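step 4 of 6: structure.
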Amino acid sequence: MNWVNAVIHGILLGGVYALLATGLSLMFGVMRIINLAHGSLALLGAYLAFLLTEHAGVSTYFALIAVLPIALLFGYVLQVTMLERSLRAGELVPLLTTFGLLIVIANLLQYFFSPDVHSLPSGSIGSASWRVSSTITIPWFDVLILGVAIFVLVGLQLLLTRTQLGRELRATAADAETAELVGVNARGVYARATAIAVATAALAGVFYAMRSAFDPFAGPSQLIYAFEAVVIGGVGSLWGTLLGGIVLGVAQTVGAQIDVQYFALAGHLVFLAVLVVRAVAAGGLRRLSFSRTVTA
Amino acid sequence: MTLLRVEAIDARHGLLQAVRDVSLDVEEGETLALVGANGAGKTTLLRTIAGSHRPAGGRIVFDGADVTRVRAHKRVRMGIALVPEGRRLFPRLTVEENLLVASAARRKGPWDVEAVLEVFPLLRPLRGARAASLSGGEQQATAIGRALMTNPRLLLLDEVSLGLAPVVVERVYASLAELAERGTTIVLVEQDIGRALAVSTRVVCMLEGRLVLEGPAREVTREQVTGAYFGLARTAGAAG
């Protein structure tokens, strides 16, 4: 039964990773930007919530609501002032820009908040769980996070398929130049995509900080998990991101069930296995098309 | 009334100068055919007018306003729409979504999804089909419909018959004639000289980036256009 418990906890953990990975997937899907600062932006959201709970005395959930519009605005400004210019300079430049941003955010957080470990209070729900049997427990807070992740993904799905902004996002992702030629302001679409991505990162960051301790340099490790979830689920696919998050989460908790040291390693191995399978499949397809060309 | 004025436009692709000192006026309501061999600079000139290619020199004036530095999406709002070569639909969007994307910059006017489907009835049963699954003719109809959704005053069409079956080309051109009758100003890039002369009110021929022949379609003979097309009339200074 411990294995069942591990799988259930893995699925729930997948919600955290999916939430974290959603913005990363959106930015890559629309702009082909691999945002190396994504984990750090999530942490920035967590520290902002920390600031509000510590100094304004508000609850973490209220702080979360306050953080979201600030993150939206920050994402918009970030795109307009920094990433847009990087995009115009070439494909690799945004990678360098976001890497620089990662370092700047981490050091600024260390400067203002010290390298100490912090955590955000999660209220009574944080410690509540449903005991199904003697070996199976379902923590309510993780269920809440998975629910929020699904809610965010459904919301984004509806935004992309049912709204004018969604159509513009998909059109710009497919062909930004042609989108401009039919009247879409591609730069404006990019700015709105980054705003949404940073807001989801901040949301994930606050939930992460309510779930576990964090410090100014936790961003890169969160980025790695988000990146792995995106790659496992299929780059640019929103529901694939949820699936990728769940696969990663289950791999980690099952790995930890074997030995607690295998928690992170098991996730990385599954990620590598997916990469290898994809590479072999792509190679096989290439060989197949090559042999068809030769025989034709 | 002059709707579009192109003044001494130069356009480059890196070191290659694709358009050289081209000046051109387009009157409101006319259909202008722009002909020329491959590489003559027609597509570059059209893209420069639409705003997706930045000119190296010269000026573009639309409806009295200098739009040379205006971005493409703003030109669409002003009334310039381009149907690009190769259609360039958004492949994962449905026909209806392709049309609706263009409503972002919709000016006031008669064109909406229903109006487009009336002109292109072949699209009606395909509204929910992904653009990638359409035939060449269906894609071209969607591309023209998408441009019409912006309610353009000036419609730029780049090689609309390229790669289409003759029967489909007939259908597309019949639709264009209907658009012209409704008063839409059209600039049409076409390699088929006979067809260009048949549908247009005025014809312009480009060779190696320059205008080498310009005149009313009724007065210009096929031989004159063919001569300009292949550079035979260049020494005669036929431009204008």
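step 5 of 6: annotate
 - The longest strand of chain A covers residues 129-131.
 - The two ends of chain A are 56 Å apart (CA to CA).
step 6 of 6: archive
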